[in-house]
Amino acid sequence: MKALIIVDIQNDFLPGGSLAVPKGDEVIPFINKVQDQYSLIVATQDWHPEDHSSFASQHAGQQPYDLIQLNGMEQVLWPNHCVQNSKGAEFHTDLQTNNIAAIFRKGMNPNIDSYSGFFDNGRLNDTGLSGYLKAKNVDEVHICGLAADFCVFYSAMDALSLGFRTAILSKGTRAIDREKYMEKKDVFIREGGRLL
Question: Of 12, 46, 82, 151, which one is the catalytic site residue?
């Protein structure tokens, strides 16, 4: 069975949000339109505590987009975004959510970031998404949402590593940094992923 994974269509990643993806709002009509092609739809949601260690505000002297080492891993420091129970963490009101069967929240551990919908960045904690999909007999996933070069890419790479046939819906995603996404896209394709 084939499932659609909608990644992080949240207010903070859309125009006017604290970590807005350029033209991120353009993907919503496409994502709404394709939903009827899937018998199972799930979504991911960034859900950070206020003191998340990926926030630049938690590191004296650091600015958003600085790179640091955090728990032995390279970490981009972000503006505060998608704080639990905030307006910025909510799904955008234009996104059709009636067909979403389950929502998998990520980034709740304040000590480690979580780009992928499947695991945190250290692969220490599993969100439960893989087990849920396998229990539903899903063997292929199509991924869309924000942002192409971070949460979409890492979700897609983890899906491949977990044995799912995996595609990224190009019209359903936008990147923070398009040039870096083009490099990551090539990695995804080399690993067996597809772009649709």
Answer: 151
Rounded Cα gap, residues 93 and 190, in angstroms: 36
User: What pLDDT is recorded for position 183?
Assistant: 92
DSSP at 21: P
What mean pLDDT comes out for the span 132-145?
98
* Angle subtended by helix axes 153-161 and 178-190, to nearest 10: 10
Active site residue 82: no
**Model pLDDT for residues 58-102, shown as the tens digit of each residue:** 999 999 999 999 888 999 999 999 999 999 999 999 999 999 999
Query: What 3-state DSSP class applies to 144?
Result: strand
Q: What is the pLDDT of residue 68?
A: 94
8 is catalytic: yes
Active-site residue, selected from the candidate residues 8, 12, 113, 158: 8
Catalytic residue of the set 46, 82, 106, 158: 106
Give yes or no for a contact between 80 and 20, defined as CB atoms under 8 angstroms apart.
no
The pTM score is 0.97
